[in-house]
Amino acid sequence: VPADRKRVRGPEESQCPLLFLPPAAQTAEPREPRAGRGNGEVRPLFARCGLVSQAKGSSYLEAGNTKILCSVYGPREPERRDEAGVRSGRLLCDLRLAPFSCGKRGAWIQGSGERDLSLALSESLHPAVCLHRYPRAQIEVNVMVLENDGSVLAHAVTCASMALADAGIEMYDVVLGSALRQDGGASLVDPDLAEERGNWLAGYEENRGGVTLSLLPNLNQVSGLHADGELRADTLSAAVRTCMESCHKLYPVVQQAILRAVKRKAPPPEK
Amino acid sequence: MCFIRTAEPLEYHRSFLKENCRPDGRELGEFRPTTLNIGSIGTADGSAMVKIGNTTVICGIKAELSAPPSDAPDKGYIVPNVDLPPLCSSRFRPGPPGEQAQAASQFIADVIDGSKIIKKEDLCIEKSKLCWVLYCDIMCLDYDGNVLDACIITLLAALKNTQIPKVTINKETDLAEVDIEHKRHLQINKHPVSSSFAVFDDTVLIVDPTAEEESLATSVITAVVDEDDQLCAFHKPGGSSLSAEKLQDCITRSVTRHREVGKLIDKVLESTKASK
C-alpha cells in the first residue's frame, strides 16, 4: 500500500475493536422480525432539497439510519475540452462513503466497491437526464453517504435525481431506487445493514441474494437493475415486480420534497 | 456610487466597510449564527455537525486498536484529517487532498498537540502492547468560508460525545478482549475554541469571513484559545503585517467567542443526555 503522503499519518496498521469481541457475543442471535414494518414496506423516508448553499442543486435523504447527501454542479464547462461531446453533455457521478459511515472504518482513498457504486449510479441516472440539451457541457453529481444502514445504491439514486431536479437540470422523469433482499422464502424490501449482510451462520439455502432496481415512475421504465447472490428465475421476476411497486410508493414523498423546494425558490404570486 | 457585486467585488465590500458593516448585515466583530448537532451518526463512536452561517462541517470519530509507536510506548494516536470534497464547493476538484485540505489537517494536528485536549497517555491500554487510535475524520459539506473554526468546534464536540469500550488483555492468550457493554467517555482536559479573522486593505479587521470575503482579504488569521484564557495556537500564514494592538484585539475577541461556544456545546450535550 503506497504511503499516503498528503494526509496526517497514523499507525501502519490498526484493527477494529469489533474483531476482538469475546466469543459469547458472536453467536447467532435469533433473527427478530422487522420492528414496526412488514416485509414489503419501505422505511419512512425524510427528504429535503436545497441544503448546500454552494451547489446548484442539492438534496438530503434519510431512510431509517441511512443518511445520504447529494449536490449537483452544472451545467458547466468541462475540464478537458477534447472530451466534450458536440452533440450531448456529460454526466459525471461520484459516490463516496464517509470513513465513519460503516461499522469498520473505511479508507479515504476510493476503493473498487465505491467505483462500482458510482458506475451503477451513473448508469441509472443517464437515461433520465436530457443530455442533448446541454451540448459541450458537464454536469457533476456528488453523492456522500454519511451513514450506511443498508440499501445505499437505491437511496443514492433517489437522492441524486432529487438534487438534479433541484438544480433545474432537464429530465424526462425522476429516477427512484429500491432494494430488496431475498432470504430463503422471505423477500425483505429496503433491507437495513444487518438484513443485507444476511446471517452467515444460518448455512446454505437456496434463494439468497439481493436486487436493486432504478425506475422512472411516470414512464414505467427500468433504468438500472443489479442482482447478486443466487436467485431462481421466478423469484427474480417477482423481486423485480416488488421493487417496482415500492418505487411507486416512494414517489409521493419525492414529489412533495421537490415541490417544496420549487415553491421556496419561486414562491407563487400572491393574489 | 453603486458597485456591482460580481463586477467589482472589492469596491462593493469596501463601500460597506466604510459604514462599519458587511454585505450580509453583520457588524465587523459579529459571528454568523452557529448551530450544533451531536451524536447523529450511529456507526461512528462519536460525531458532531456544526453550521456557522452556511458553512457546514461534520466530524466522525472512530476508535481502533493498534500497537503503540516504538518511540513512545505509553502513548496512543490521534489522527485528524480534514477533507474538502468537491461536494462542498465548485472550487475543489476530485482526487487527493489539495493544499487547503492538507494545511487544515496539519493545523488541527498542531492544535491537538499544543492544547493537549486529550492526553495521549490516556489512550494507552497496555504499555508497548496495545493502544487506542482515534481517527478524527472531518468533512466539509458546504464551504462558505471559515472552515478552520468549524473544524475545531466540531472536533471538540465529537470528542466529548465519543464513547469507547473497555478493553482488557487476556493474560493467557495475550489477545485483547473488548467489552462492548461497558463504554466510557474520553477524558477531555482542555477545550480549545478558535476564531478566524480577515484583514482588508491592511487595515480593517473583520471576524468570521465568508468565502467571498476570504478571497478578497489581504490576510487571514486564526487564534485558538482555551478555557483558562491561554493562547493555544496562532495561525497567520503570510499576508499583510499587523500591529501588536490589532493582534491583541484578535486574542481578546477569541476569548469572548470561547465563552459563547463553550455555552453552546454544554447546552447541546445537556439536551442529548436529557433526551436519552
UniProtKB/TrEMBL annotation, chain A:
It is found in: Cytoplasm; Nucleus, Nucleolus. InterPro entries: ExoRNase_PH_dom1, ExoRNase_PH_dom2_sf, PNPase/RNase_PH_dom_sf, Ribosomal_Su5_D2-typ_SF, RNase_PH. Keywords: Cytoplasm, Exosome, Nucleus, RNA-binding, rRNA processing. Residues 1-39 are annotated as: Disordered. Belongs to the RNase PH family. The keyword Transmembrane helix does not apply. Non-catalytic component of the RNA exosome complex which has 3'->5' exoribonuclease activity and participates in a multitude of cellular RNA processing and degradation events. Its main location: cytoplasm. One of its GO terms (biological process) is rRNA catabolic process. Pfam families: RNase_PH. Gene3D superfamilies: GHMP Kinase, N-terminal domain. SUPFAM superfamilies: Ribonuclease PH domain 2-like, Ribosomal protein S5 domain 2-like. The keyword RNA-binding applies. It comes from the Eukaryota. GO terms for cellular component: cytoplasmic exosome (RNase complex); nuclear exosome (RNase complex); nucleolus. Residues 41-170 form the Exoribonuclease phosphorolytic domain. Component of the RNA exosome complex. One of its GO terms (molecular function) is RNA binding. This is Exosome complex component MTR3.
TrEMBL record, chain B:
One of its GO terms (molecular function) is mRNA 3'-UTR AU-rich region binding. One of its GO terms (cellular component) is cytoplasmic exosome (RNase complex). It comes from the Eukaryota. SUPFAM superfamilies: Ribonuclease PH domain 2-like (SSF55666), Ribosomal protein S5 domain 2-like (SSF54211). Keywords: Acetylation, Cytoplasm, Exosome, Nucleus, RNA-binding, rRNA processing. Transmembrane segments: none annotated. One of its GO terms (biological process) is exonucleolytic trimming to generate mature 3'-end of 5.8S rRNA from tricistronic rRNA transcript (SSU-rRNA, 5.8S rRNA, LSU-rRNA). InterPro entries: ExoRNase_PH_dom1 (IPR001247), ExoRNase_PH_dom2 (IPR015847), ExoRNase_PH_dom2_sf (IPR036345), Exosome_comp_Rrp42_subfam (IPR050590), PNPase/RNase_PH_dom_sf (IPR027408), Ribosomal_Su5_D2-typ_SF (IPR020568), Rrp43 (IPR033196). Its main location: cytoplasm. It is found in: Cytoplasm; Nucleus, Nucleolus. Residues 30-165, 192-252 form the Exoribonuclease phosphorolytic domain. Belongs to the RNase PH family. This is Exosome complex component RRP43. The lineage of its organism: Eukaryota, Metazoa, Chordata, Craniata, Vertebrata.
